[in-house]
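Give me structure tokens for this 232-residue protein.
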Amino acid sequence: MLNDWYSCSCFLQRFPALVGTAVAQSEPQQFVVVYVEFKPANARAGGDVLQQLEARAEDSAGVIRFDVLQQIDRPNFFALFEVWSNAQTFEDFQNSSETQAILTQLTPLLEAPLDQRPGNLLTGTVNPRSRHAQARQIFVITHVDVDPQFVPQAQPLLNTFVADSLNDPGVQTFALLSQTPTANHFQLVETFEDLEAFDDHVSAQHTVDFRTATAPFLGAPYDERLYQFVSR
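Here you go.
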């Protein structure tokens, strides 16, 4: 949905925080990750409804990015990755009658309620999406649940991991989100140019060191899920 914007010079003026680490603004951008689980027989129909939601978002004030993603190994599992100019524009989108009508269509197709996780960008880079390359791109969302007492120890490790990973070949986006208001829950949002780049990243020594160092601080398994973009 953003390919026309990305190709024009006004993109840098309109969406400065998507190029490099987010810049300071009067209001923080609202990031949202939504996990969507359809009954297996409803995967295709559910994906179609999510694309209706994407189309609705495209016409909404304050939208910066809205991606529909399908989990590679479980095709009835989807995710939404959203970036809004601020919390109010996201709330307005959610509460509109048009959005509510689409969400109503989703309900009978689901095997579990929508798992919506709003958050703030802590560090990292969210780069523009490459429409021409999306067929081979790998989008990864990792939920990192840190035991609350260990957040001061774990967060510097997460920050360093993001900084190291941005230098890995084939990395296009690598960012750390803090879930609101659960400050010990984090989301790593990552995009790779292809599966080989992802495999090289997870095999890199800095990734192995990070996983080893953070393991004692986790309150739940490291939940890493691989997705592909769904195109309309």
